[in-house]
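dumping this here so i dont lose it
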């Protein structure tokens, strides 16, 4: 592949990863920064990220801070260099686990708390209230089960989980 084709392919990947970011609960720019760093051979400083992605310093700094908070990237410093560099977690399984845990904390836990609270209330014999009680109880049980499965998968080693899943679903 020539250099121009490679640059375009890389730009397309970064752009598409940004679009996918909203599916896992982050904004487009945060996902694009993550994609850029995931494909960077060396740790990269904020100025390079800003130039490559055509984003402001404030946007870059805020999203880098959030990515560090998620654990998807880490800060790298070099002795004698005042700049802060960043590198992404490159292990795909580790990224999946990090994203799963963060989504659980941000999305599943609050939803599960609401469902549990709704299901535990006393309702009268009104059909609408009875249906609501029944549905919230069923949803609560389902989300709790799904949460347990996702938690087990996210805490497992890839080498143990993937062969098991592949064998089960063939």
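and the seq i came up w/
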């Amino acid at each position: 592949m020539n250099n121009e084709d490679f640059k375009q392919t890389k730009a397309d990947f970064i752009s598409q990863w940004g679009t996918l970011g909203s599916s896992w609960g982050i904004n487009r720019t945060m996902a694009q920064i993550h994609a850029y760093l995931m494909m960077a051979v060396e740790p990269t400083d904020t100025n390079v990220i800003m130039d490559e992605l055509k984003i402001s310093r404030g946007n870059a700094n805020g999203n880098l801070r959030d990515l560090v908070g998620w654990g998807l990237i880490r800060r790298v410093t070099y002795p004698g260099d005042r700049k802060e560099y960043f590198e992404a977690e490159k292990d795909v399984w580790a990224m999946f686990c990090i994203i799963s845990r963060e989504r659980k904390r941000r999305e599943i836990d609050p939803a599960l708390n609401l469902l549990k609270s709704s299901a535990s209330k006393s309702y009268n014999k009104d059909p609408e209230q009875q249906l609501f009680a029944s549905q919230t109880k069923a949803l609560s049980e389902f989300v709790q089960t799904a949460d347990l499965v996702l938690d087990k998968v996210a805490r497992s080693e890839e080498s143990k989980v993937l062969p098991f899943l592949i064998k089960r679903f063939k």
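The mean pLDDT is 88.
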